[in-house]
Design a protein that fits this description.
The protein has one helix at 125-132; strands at 2-4, 12-13, 29-32, 40-47, 56-64, 70-71, 81-82, 104-113, 136-146. The protein has 148 residues and is mainly beta. The protein has a single domain, classed as Alpha-Beta Complex (Phosphatidylethanolamine-binding Protein), CATH 3.90.280.10. The radius of gyration is 14 Å and the shape is globular.
């Protein structure tokens, strides 16, 4: 399975447009090579370099149709559920590291599952991670960086 973006290359800087200093919208993401038998996809974007050593959750989305080949810029998939992020919102929250800190890494993690998730819509990343244990058929990630 592969996850890529037309907005930035793997391990490259995320354009300001997709951060708290820009439009704060999600970049276009392309999905390919989803395994046969996948019933749903999960997408988690987080920052393991967040202040205080606590990973900051920027986007939590599940029950994405496994036939999805693209998540368009600034969009929400009709079939998907957006969970609660570290911002306390149920939407994309772009990179927003403290000014002057070293570049932070932003992990876009995609999981193909053998089931759809039946969890509350306000679930957080930890709830999703517990729900997907032993359900993952494949996983991949796309890494972007950002510094203010």
């Amino acid at each position: 399975m592969k996850l890529s973006s037309v907005a930035f290359e793997n391990s490259a800087s995320i354009p300001q447009k997709f951060t708290c200093d820009g439009a704060n919208i999600n970049p276009e993401l392309r999905i390919s090579e989803v395994p046969d038998g996948a019933k749903s996809l999960v997408l988690i974007m987080d920052d393991p370099d967040a202040t205080g050593g606590v990973t900051w959750d920027h986007w939590v989305v599940w029950n994405i149709d496994p036939k999805t080949s693209m998540i368009a810029e600034n969009s929400v998939l009709a079939s998907a559920v957006q969970g609660t992020t570290s911002f306390g919102d149920q939407k994309y929250g772009g990179p927003c590291p403290p000014r002057g800190s070293k570049p932070h890494r932003y992990m876009f993690k995609l999981y193909a599952l053998d089931t759809a998730l039946d969890i509350p819509a306000d679930s957080k990343k930890a709830d999703v991670e517990r729900a997907i244990v032993e359900r993952v058929l494949a996983e991949t990630k796309l890494l972007g960086t950002f510094q203010r």
